[in-house]
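Run log // design_07
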């Protein structure tokens, strides 16, 4: 319940504050698009968990199912259309596919085919929703990189350079580093490295 209230507060903040998106991505009260996405992923996973616990305990009634489905859909929307986090989008799609596959496996053998049809339709609609998201191009950039193509998303280019710079700083001082939170100052970027591991090495 606390997570759901927090989620609704972040949506209310976006609406009431008139927050302007950065590159089409909202940060809400967390002031970081990726952190905002992770918060919504956690809420969505808790919704999936609540449904599974209700099924295993036999306490899943219609109200609880509708409530959790609404929570999952709201988080799905927030991840796809507000935060645009690549990791969030991938985790959302994989979680939905895994959940639907698990729901099919839980059914008795005769009901699996009957149950599989609507669930596969729902999964197809969810994946189509991901594809139609304006943030889907962020995923397409990853595929483009893996294929050796040109990169259009400047965020990918900048993060790659941040990663390289952090590794170079670590190689300059591999044993004692540059000091706590010094990557921001020493690198000249004025921001963190967008990768906790290399930032720890550099610092």
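design_07 sequence
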């Amino acid at each position: 319940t606390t997570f759901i209230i927090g989620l609704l507060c972040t949506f209310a903040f976006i609406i009431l504050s008139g927050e302007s998106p950065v590159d089409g991505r909202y940060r809400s009260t967390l002031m970081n698009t990726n952190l905002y996405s992770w918060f919504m992923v956690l809420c969505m996973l808790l919704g999936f968990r609540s449904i599974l616990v209700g099924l295993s305990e036999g306490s899943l009634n219609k109200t609880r199912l509708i409530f959790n489905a609404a929570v999952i859909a709201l988080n799905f929307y927030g991840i796809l259309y507000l935060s645009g986090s690549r990791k969030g989008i991938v985790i959302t799609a994989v979680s939905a596919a895994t959940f639907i596959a698990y729901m099919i496996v839980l059914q008795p053998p005769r009901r699996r085919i009957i149950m599989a049809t609507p669930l596969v339709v729902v999964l197809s609609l969810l994946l189509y929703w991901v594809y139609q998201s304006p943030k889907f191009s962020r995923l397409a950039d990853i595929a483009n990189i893996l294929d050796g193509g040109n990169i259009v998303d400047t965020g990918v280019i900048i993060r790659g350079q941040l990663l390289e710079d952090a590794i170079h700083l670590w190689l300059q001082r591999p044993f004692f580093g540059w000091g706590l939170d010094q990557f921001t100052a020493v690198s000249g970027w004025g921001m963190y490295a967008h990768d906790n591991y290399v930032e720890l090495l550099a610092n």
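The chain has nine helices and no strands.
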